[in-house]
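User: I've been going back and forth on whether these two constructs are worth ordering. Before I decide, could you fold them both?

Assistant: Sure. I'll take them in the order you sent them. The first construct and its structure tokens:
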Amino acid sequence: MKKLLITGASGFVGWHLCQLAKQEWEVYGTYLSHPLEIPGIKTLKVNLTNFQELKSIFSNVKPTAVIHTAAHSQPNFCQTHPEESHAINVMASCNIAGLCADNFIPYAFTSTDLVFDGLNAPYQETDPVCPVNLYGEQKVMAETGMLQRYPKTAVCRMPLMFGAATPTAKSFIQPFIQTLKAGKELNLFIDEFRTPVSGTTAAKGLLLALEKVNGCIHLGGKERISRYDFGRLLIEVFQLPATMLKSCRQQDVKMAAPRPADVSLDSSKAFALGYQPLSLRQELKELFNSDRY
């Protein structure tokens, strides 16, 4: 069987990717500080920012493809820890691209919709990047550095993602559900728009991109929605108490990292390749019925 190395197996996307990929690949998943066991996957503790450790993974595992999902992906953390986040978000990503180039193997990378400033949505792959926070800047630096080293890299710009909690990671909906069930107020932005997808859909998109894409690809969903309207849909599908959902604006909440208003992605290029996100209602219904949230 072909060997797939997935970095960040303990993260939300990495975990979902491992579940899907193990059906067709021999999967090796890396983690750093959150040890985990995934049936059917070989998990390895690796510090990706240590180049020697990284090189030895390549020589020991001899992967036939790599998907790099490991990152510091909280914009507020990146803003306040610039060096620590740069090491994994930029340096490690470029080093992995170099090792994939040396071995001529497919490489997919999870970038973000936050490479854009939110003023000209929906965004296509050819639109100029202009991040408003450090996390977005780091992902732009990684994209540029990796494509210089290895033009065959599939740079996958990911939207906001939601789905079942994993043993070591949550998505943004778990705290929403908890807050509403506890009868507490949930304040969500009416002026921040994204094109969300589920973790499972994102994983399908990444595997597709690994096979078919060189350069940038957008893996957003088919619906542009505000955080507040997503909350309303979640309440409806999950039959949660609606009275505590309140609307607010970005300017009402002080955050370390500035946030763009609308980074909706135009993913028609991916749709043409066979990427097929379900409707948000359908995704949420499946999640609700699975009882795994």
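The second construct, handled the same way:
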Amino acid sequence: MRSRRTTLAVPGSNPRFIEKAQGLPADEVFLDLEDAVAPSAKEDARKTVVAALNEGDWSGRTRVVRVNDADTRWAYRDVVEVVEGAGANLDAIMLPKASDATHVQWLDRLLTQIERAMDLPVGRIGIEAQIEDARGLTNIDAIAASSPRLEALVLGPGDLMASLNMKTLVVGEQPPGYTEGDAYHHILMRILIAARAHGLQAVDGPYFNVRDVDAFTRVARRSAALGFDGKWVLHPAQIEAGNAVFSPSQDDYDRAELILDAYDRALREGRGAATLGDEMIDEASRKMALVVAAKGRAAGMARTRRPDPPGN
């Protein structure tokens, strides 16, 4: 899977921001044609996005465009113009307000038609589905199973909180008066479970107070602890913190690789279990270690410890 520790939102109508994003260490950059672009600027923004994808240096980053939602008058032209103009330099389309599986299926079919017409590899462009209302959360299992192109489920907290009539004006923070537990826990777990059940990634939504990096880090640690793969970032100041939160520590990464080494050696020797120090390792240990090791490898981490020679 692609690394999505940090997904940087960039207005598709702002060439200066787009140019700056190319030098930032976010894993993914999505050029936004939806909420960040005024209705009067949407058509011109498509041209700006196409030029940026074709001419920009996006080396090492996943390139995504967020189109307008499927019920708007802009959606189909967003997809057609962006994919026809820059499909070879695009990794995925983000579909906002995915409330029903048919929304994703519509996008899948449209992408297939464009790819065939443009002689692009059919199925290469992925889809990220954004869950932004109560209906989408209710239909999330069907959405998660809706298309082989689907790569990730993404929380859209602002619209979702509004659809629930949640008493808050700060996206990402607990609503006033909610003092017991976490008001977002069920939502986060619902998205995560649906994603994992269908082999998808799960991405947490943005934290709007972009200058408060400590608060961003605190909120990011919540979803990272549950198992989310990453989080939206709205400002360059959030990228370093997000990359750190959604990467394993060096000790955990090294230990995960050592567990995999020890278990692999045990299987080669005809044993179904092994030991690492004083700890017993079995198939369940291997699965847990694979998760941590995969995150470390995707983050470009290097091992600092190797297995001790046999007999030591």
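Notes on the second construct follow. The beta strands are 6-11, 28-32, 62-66, 92-95, 126-131, 150-155, 201-204, 230-233, 274-276, 279-281. Residues 115 and 121 are 6 Å apart (CA to CA).
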